[in-house]
């Protein structure tokens, strides 16, 4: 009986223990934490990702925080939807980056930021994007009012001009965050104006050539405001003539003018690099130093003068190609225009003859100047832009007055050159006023620009394209070897590459079209355009029309019993246009007997 009772108690105890165990287990299950949402923790040592299990992983190894930026100067203020939260300021360690949504929320953007100095691994890009997304949500609620723009130049319907880390406006100047840090460095300032006004630099600045180059340097601010084509100058002269020193002084007015990565660049630059650089320094000034003889600069002159990015794909997006404005100065030993006579360069490049004498004294001055502008630069930009902002409407009126004075309507190219030099003159007018206010000896800017206009309009390289082309062709044809008969007498036929090149009968000059094409290609001339204008000027004769009734500019004639397609010149009209003397008449080749 005792035994049965004992067994019964054991069973009851086991039931109680089992019940207690189940109760404890249930309580433990109830107390076990539920799965937590992933979280990010910002610490002084970095950003930590915490997963659902509470496990931690450092994804950025530096304290990283994001601030929203609500004022983008690159767009008009009324465009409120795009005006807010278009960029973000990322402080990661000692680096400050200005990024867009696309940079923060994509793997490619993370890689871009790693390359810019963010301490993280590409493999953590997904987690980093998640951190940025949460940071953006927080920044959106408390956005910092901070002006930012992607590149320098005129903004908001030309009411603000951004240069370096400053935005200039009629209301005053304010600090701005320029996303293009390289451009900010290029057009920053250092040292002092007094340090820049070194006696050696002022002596050099007294040369007319240096003065004109300074006007051109500052003219980019005006041409971009006035809506003019970009201004290009070319300073030429013998080696060691101080061309680069002159260009550096001009650049030092507004920024760093030394070192290959700043304002002074190599003229041996590709079109793509020139385009990207121009977009980056929009509205400012660049020097393209040491042009090479026999290189064709027509494409780069045309690109820079027009200020339009080249389209690279056959679609409608080309219409949205990015443009740019700036002023440029080429330097080189030979006249750039002699090797660049194509229409794209005609009238788009202002030639400046270097008249700075070569001397031991100037060599010493150049050494002093190099040291001066490495330590003092960028101090004339601010007063210049302040003057522009003080009288923007007056500048428009003053420019129109000057453009009327400098235009030469009698020449095909006179209007284009005159408009450019009028802008250079206006730049000189403002700059000379600033020089006077700061105790720098002044010059007559109007007289300097008038002489510059005269030299450009009357130079051979600035003749109308059709006339320049006519001279080149005439000079080439004049050197062709005349054919002789069996008795050694000169015939009316001249040979070009051992083939019939031309014939003259005293009234007409017949030039084989194939030979003319070759001459034009060798001299970078547009044959089609030239022969069209020559006919309009009544220099050539051709009454033929095509089967479609279109006017022809060439005609098949028989030369030495051979049918040859020719361009036929009226010799009297040709000699009149070229102002040939009796001694230089076409066909007077008796001296070759």
Describe the structure.
The structure is a single chain. This protein has 593 residues and is of the alpha/beta class. A six-stranded antiparallel sheet has the order 18-19-20-21-23-22. Strands 6-5-4-7-12 form a five-stranded mixed sheet. The longest helix has 30 residues, at 2-31. Mean pLDDT is 83; it is low at 311-320, 340-344 and 582-593.
What is the fold's blueprint, element by element?
Layout: H1 2-31, E1 39-43, E2 46-50, E3 56-60, E4 64-72, H2 80-83, E5 87-92, E6 95-99, H3 101-104, H4 107-115, H5 125-141, E7 144-149, E8 153-155, E9 160-163, E10 166-169, E11 172-175, E12 177-178, H6 181-186, H7 193-196, H8 199-205, H9 208-226, E13 231-236, H10 243-252, E14 264-266, H11 271-280, E15 284-289, H12 298-306, E16 326-332, E17 350-353, H13 360-375, H14 381-390, H15 392-406, H16 414-437, H17 445-458, H18 465-478, E18 481-484, E19 490-496, E20 499-504, E21 508-512, H19 513-522, H20 527-536, E22 555-559, E23 562-570, H21 571-578
Parallel strand pairs: 4-7, 7-12, 13-16, 13-17, 14-15, 15-16
Antiparallel strand pairs: 1-2, 2-3, 4-5, 5-6, 8-9, 9-10, 10-11, 18-19, 19-20, 20-21, 21-23, 22-23
